[in-house]
Amino acid sequence: MILPIIAYGDPVLRKKGKEISRDYPKLDELIANMWETMYNAFGVGLAAPQVGLPVRLFMIDTSPFAEDEDLSEEEKKELEGLKKVFINPVITKEEGDEWAFNEGCLSIPDVREDVFRKPEITIEYFDENFNKYTENYKGLAARVIQHEYDHIEGILFTDKLSSLKKRIIKGKLANISKGKITVDYRMRFPELKKAR
Predict the structure, then answer these.
(1) pTM for the full model?
(2) Residue 84, annotated ligand binder?
(3) Residue 194: pLDDT over 60
(4) Known catalytic residue: 95?
(5) Domain regions of the chain by residue span
(6) In the chain, where do the E strands start and end?
């Protein structure tokens, strides 16, 4: 089932996610619904707070990035097969010199800005079967994971922008929270919720 994606301005996007256990209610159904929701919106990642649940769960599928002509064959190969669910993840290390990349977010449609992040991470997490992993990721893969990880920490990519950039996009963000935007996927807007 396609779930509505929560728009910028909703308090759930600012909550630090709580850990979940193997017996979290209807976890398999939630994961299936989140995959369907993400693909319907042409996303490469989706975190539980973006569907209204302040829990430590997100998923990524970086295969759309594998089409990028500018990437090396090694990078394309890594991105092509990277489809994972991360439950209760902890980034234990971020390394290297920060680099900029133009990011967007399904909860903040039509806003894209350069964000600086470290190029390499180590992350511990459980998969959907509660098997535990510790893995290293680099480049775009690391960036997608960091972006989704921020969601379960109550952080949005717009928080990482300069105060000047924040002022420039302030009007756009206000319009998103009021539902004054056209998107081709289901969304829930905080200002419209209050009006009912």
Answers:
(1) 0.94
(2) no
(3) no
(4) no
(5) 5-195
(6) 5-6, 45-47, 57-61, 83-95, 99-105, 108-117, 120-126, 132-138, 187-188
The single residue of 113, 148, 153, 191 carrying the catalytic annotation is 148
Token pair for 125 = 């997490």
Does the annotation place 94 within a ligand binding site?
no
How many Cβ atoms sit within 10 Å of the Cβ of residue 146? 22
Query: pLDDT tens, 146-157?
Result: 999 999 999 999
Q: Which residues, at least 6 apart from 102, have a Cβ–Cβ distance to it below 8 Å?
A: 112, 113, 114, 115
d(CA 104, CA 148): 11
pLDDT tens string 66-113: 888 788 888 888 888 899 999 999 999 999 999 999 999 999 999 999
For the domain made up of 5-195, the CATH class stated in words is alpha beta
Tokens coding 132: 């535990």
Q: What is the pLDDT of residues 116-127, one digit of tens each?
A: 999 999 999 999
Nearest CA to 47 out of 94, 85, 8 is that of 85
What the block records as the tokens of 56 is 């430590």
Determine whether the annotation assigns residue 50 to a binding site. Answer: no
